[in-house]
Specification:
single chain, 210 residues, mainly beta, four-stranded antiparallel beta sheet, 1 helix, 2% helix, globular
Length: 210
């Protein structure tokens, strides 16, 4: 989902394994939520995770075996796209899965991707041209390692005494001892580890007009 900083309207994106991506405008009709399709996009193969930068107005989508594409997030943005991260570059390994954005002030921050084929997470500059920054590779500690990760999410905002500087949450496809999949949550200060920005003041729910 996203909210446009230009219009204040709310949208959501859905995709299908045949490569189809659709954008819908959320609204209200006779007291119920309505959804109107406003745009259709197409990739050559299976799309996975996607995320929109509300402040900048860009839409990122992972194509499993190709890499990460950037589109305009506006409904009139057309189908023009840029491949900002290619499978094989900087250790990004298929399948490319979940995407999430860490917001920071002054347009800074990160696009984070699940590199499922290598069981790590790739970090790119939120600002164009979205240079690769580093790899996040959580190690076993109080909780076991993570692998086969699909969805991920991050917040820069304090959420509790346990996570005063935000957190990164990742789906873990399998656990030690053959247990079921679950989710692992990491304090952002541990992920940042002196190499990444920690900015709890930026409010991604109040995007500025680009």
């Amino acid at each position: 989902m996203r909210v446009s900083a230009r219009s204040g309207q709310y949208y959501f994106f859905v995709n299908h394994k045949d490569g189809s991506i659709e954008q819908y405008l959320l609204g209200e009709k006779t007291g119920a939520i309505s959804a109107t399709k406003v745009r259709a996009l197409k990739l050559k193969s299976t799309p996975e995770g996607c995320v929109a930068d509300d402040e900048v107005g860009t839409f990122f989508v992972a194509e499993e075996r190709t890499g990460i594409w950037k589109f305009s997030a506006e409904p009139n943005g057309g189908d023009e796209r840029t491949l900002i991260a290619k499978v094989g570059d900087h250790g990004l390994k298929a399948d490319v899965e979940g995407l999430t954005i860490y917001y920071a002030s002054d347009g800074r921050g990160y696009l984070i991707a699940s590199s499922q084929g290598s069981n790590v997470f790739k970090v790119y500059d939120r600002r164009p041209p979205h240079h690769f920054i580093l790899t996040i590779d959580p190690k076993p500690g109080k909780i076991d390692d993570v692998n086969d990760t699909d969805g991920i999410a991050v917040t820069n905002r304090p959420t509790s005494d346990l996570f005063p500087k935000g957190f990164l949450v990742v789906q873990d496809g399998s656990n030690a001892g053959g247990k079921n999949q679950n989710f692992k949550v990491y304090g952002w200060e541990d992920i940042a580890a002196g190499h990444l920005i920690i900015d709890t003041s930026c409010d991604p729910r109040a995007p500025r007009q680009p």
